[in-house]
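Worked example 3 (structure in, sequence out).
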């Protein structure tokens, strides 16, 4: 039985090097933006039943660029068996912003922290167990040029895909937003897949036009959701999308303080 593992991360995170290492498929690797301009798929050389999908490097799942739209469509519509999210240990904050979004999708999720050899060379430390606790997912160490560590990271994603239950996504946002998301989730029950309830609730909160069109909510349901959103906007004195962005960064800052 084939299993698809999506490799997702910022440009230059090392996911393409991991893909090359395990599949043997030639592909350019580099640190410049857009090195993977379209999705690449190939089986793992040592395990042809595991298909790796190297998706374009992105900074978020907001579909502002062609690459972001392509990645979002793949993850939402095709639903890979697991996501292997590669972030840079030397500069983890941008990767963690994307991680908080990926974790909301309801897809089995593993983080691979790359360039840890460089982190140690600089005399720094990073507590990956604390990162696991805060992100509610398995976290593995990765040097993308170390084939053994690449294989171990993919095995972790395969194991996560095989688990019947996954950990609930962490409460990234403040209590006011989390309450609103729960309320929106009640409106959406039965209208979206249960394992994607949180992701769709966030899209409603952001007033994401593409997602709203796909859900086909009634005017009454939209107004009920709007009331919840406007209450938070009034309290935070900011628009809903900015509220989520600011609270994601606040969460990431709190995580970094513990690492």
């Amino acid at each position: 039985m084939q299993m698809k593992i999506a490799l997702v991360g910022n440009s230059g995170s090392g996911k393409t090097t991991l893909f090359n290492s395990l599949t043997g498929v030639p592909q350019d690797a580099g640190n410049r933006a857009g090195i993977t301009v379209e999705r690449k798929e190939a089986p793992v050389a040592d395990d042809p039943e595991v298909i790796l999908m190297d998706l374009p490097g992105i900074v978020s799942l907001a579909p502002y660029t062609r690459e972001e739209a392509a990645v979002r469509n793949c993850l939402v519509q095709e639903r890979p068996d697991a996501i292997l999210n590669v972030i840079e240990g030397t500069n983890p904050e941008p990767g963690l912003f994307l991680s908080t979004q990926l974790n909301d999708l309801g897809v089995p999720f593993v983080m691979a922290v790359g360039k840890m050899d460089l982190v140690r060379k600089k005399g720094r430390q990073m507590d990956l167990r604390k990162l696991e606790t805060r992100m509610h997912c398995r976290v593995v160490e990765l040097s993308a040029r170390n084939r053994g560590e690449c294989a171990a990271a993919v095995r972790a994603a395969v194991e996560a895909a095989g688990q019947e239950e996954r950990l609930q996504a962490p409460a990234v946002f403040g209590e006011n937003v989390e309450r609103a998301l729960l309320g929106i989730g009640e409106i959406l029950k039965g209208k979206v897949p249960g394992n994607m309830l949180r992701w769709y609730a966030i899209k409603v909160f952001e007033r994401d036009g593409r997602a709203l069109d796909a859900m086909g909510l009634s005017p009454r349901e939209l107004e009920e959701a709007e009331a919840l959103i406007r209450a938070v906007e009034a309290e935070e004195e900011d628009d809903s999308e900015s509220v989520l962005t600011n609270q994601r960064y606040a969460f990431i800052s709190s995580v970094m303080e513990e690492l």
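Notes: Confidence is low (pLDDT under 50) at residues 28-36. The radius of gyration is 18 Å.
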